[in-house]
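U., I forgot to send this yesterday:
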Amino acid sequence: MHAWRRPKWAVSALCLAAVLAAIASWALWPSSSPPPRERQYRATTACLLTDDKGLVGEQAQATWKGMQAASVATLVKVQYLSVPGPQTPANAAAYFNSLALQKCALIFATGEAPIAAMLDGYSRFPELRYVAVGGANEDPQVTVVPATPLDTVPTTVQRIISEAA
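Result:
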């Protein structure tokens, strides 16, 4: 009977050692991918208001490209919002107001209705900065970025955000 206990104990010890070795190997195995990095954004957000085409429209696409490049370079957060439904200044005003109330430090607008809504409502939020891409405006409170040539829009947008950061 004593001989039967010894092998059972030895088998249990070997199993335990194998399990511990497997756990240690798994824990110490080098990772093939780098650990995820956390991006620490500034307390500044730049927002884009587009028409119902969203980021598919040429001006919105060029503006978004510049905003993303600026975000990488300056750690300014960027976001966009499309205006669904009727493309009227009255309908776009609600979406413009939501961006302004979110305290976007800069609001870019592309498309007729979003730009018109911004021009109608920016005076209610004087602490923010406004940029109309492809629009026309005489007010010095709204910066106008010409939409042509289209390939200059991303660089101009990136510069505007970098200056505000």
